[in-house]
Amino acid sequence: MSPILDRYLTAVKFWLPKSQRDDIAAELAANLQSEIEDRAETLGRPLNEAEIAAILKQHGPPIIVASRYRGEQRTVSFGRQLIGPIVFPFYWIALKVSLLLMFVPRFISAVFLHGDGRTISEFVRALAQVARISLPALLVVTGIFALIDLNLRRFGLLEKWSANWDPNKLPPPERQKKEVKRSSSIGGIIFTSLFLLWWMRYASIPLLVITKAGTQVHFAPILSSLYWPILIVLFISLAQHWINLLEPGWRWLPPLTGIITTLAGLIIIYPLLKHPDLITITDANGLAISKGGSAGLHHLVSKGLLGLALGMLIVGTIYAWQLLWIVWQSFSRPPAAPNGKGIALI
Amino acid sequence: MATQPNSDIFDNLRLELRRGLLIVAVLAQLRREHYGYTLRKDLAALGIDIDEGTLYPLLRRLETQGLLESEWREENNRQKRFYKLSKDGRHILKQLLAELDQINASLTRII
Fold it and tell me: Which of A24, A122, A328, A341 is most buried, judging by how many CB atoms fall within 10 Å of its CB?
């Protein structure tokens, strides 16, 4: 198989769902190879890499080709189409992450606090309130992606990108396999951005409004002193995901950033482990509810924080090991031989 | 209010007009077995030019809908996926062709 075709198919496979990846790639390879052979037969000679690249360019960029095979038909419409099938998969990931961040913690708290003698109807009302608070965040996510989709269509950005796309710039398959996955970078950007947005507003938003009477759960004031350190750690993490999206070959960056952020995280968490009240629970008038009434929740938060610290210690060790491995590999292996050019190897 | 250029309007309408007809053409051509590339070539030779980025995923979609059957087979030392019309596909094609005849007849009277 021609090296450029191999690189192209590897790039298409990257964007395909795992369950169909090999099947679709094999079919696509057979069709493209038939086209290349057919063209070679017409010309009476094998095609060179530049001619094969022209066929691949006509076929389209890997992400677009894969999106057609994914058969993504889902869209978001409200009178007119707001989010089209190309943007939809990314929107869907963002929506799920938002739900995880906005809805799940409140839901768990609602379930946990249910033990303090509330009736079922109060519990159901609390859940409805959790949904009501989470809904605006989901609308914001939808609005952001509708704006992205609108600009893609209005300025024909996808068409422009497809026209300028160059198959010769695709990295070799072995390098593509080792690169930082684009899905990982995109997921990281979405997750970190949402967390960052939430963190920047945490002081004014209660973690949970739990009853009709207006019981609210807030972070304790000690966390205010950690606002900037945590914000800086989140920005470092966000920058790493953006850099790796543009430079997926920088495999050393995620473990290096991981070591820095986990170390910073441990330093940030250390004073909290000694602090008995990490959350405050207030009634509708903003008056603190006695700790005895929600001892279980306090205990859960303390244990959770200890678990988080231990988890960070383990993750930091794994990052250090990954970084050492990458550095060792880069010094112990000879550089790969360059690919041949202008030779048809079908 | 800004108006869409005429060429854009024509392109959009042409796309809509072609979309359904291309499916009929693909189904009709697959009464005889083909794999992706030869199907595209044969259709092009008959005046129906379908972009490969549209045709190859379309074949898989029609198979998922039960209108096509496929099998992997070796030809010229290479494994290829051959498609042909299924029993359900033949039935649907018959209905679509009858519908097309009716639309054609009506259009002829209108035009």
Answer: A24
**What mean pLDDT do residues B13-18 have?**
85
Q: Which residues of B touch A26 (CB under 8 A)?
A: 79, 81
Residue A124 belongs to what H/E stretch?
A: helix A120-154
A278 with A222: CB under 8 angstroms?
yes
Q: Residue A171: is it exposed, middle or buried by C-beta count within 10 angstroms (0-12/13-18/19+)?
A: middle
CB < 8 Å from B in window 39-78 of A: 59-60, 64-65, 68-69, 71
Rounded to 10 deg, the angle between the A104-113 and A295-332 helix axes is 150
* pLDDT digit string, tens, across residues A243-271: 887 677 778 888 899 899 899 988 888 87
Q: Which of A149, A176, A162 is nearest to A92 (CA)?
A: A149
A27/B54 touch (CB, cutoff 8 Å), yes or no: no
Query: Which residues is A281 bridged to in the sheet?
Result: A217
For residue A216, give the nearest of A111, A301, A109 by alpha carbon.
A109
Q: Do A28 and B54 touch (CB under 8 A)?
A: no
Is B36's CB within 8 Å of A30's CB?
yes
Euclidean distance between the first and the last CA atom of chain B, given in angstroms as a whole number: 32
Judge whether A162 and A149 are in contact, CB under 8 Å: no
State how far residue A70 is from chain B, nearest Cα, in angstroms: 8
pLDDT tens readout for residues A178-231: 677 777 888 888 888 777 777 776 555 556 555 556 677 766 777 777 778 888
- Evaluated on CA atoms A279, A283, A289, A292, the torsion sign reads negative
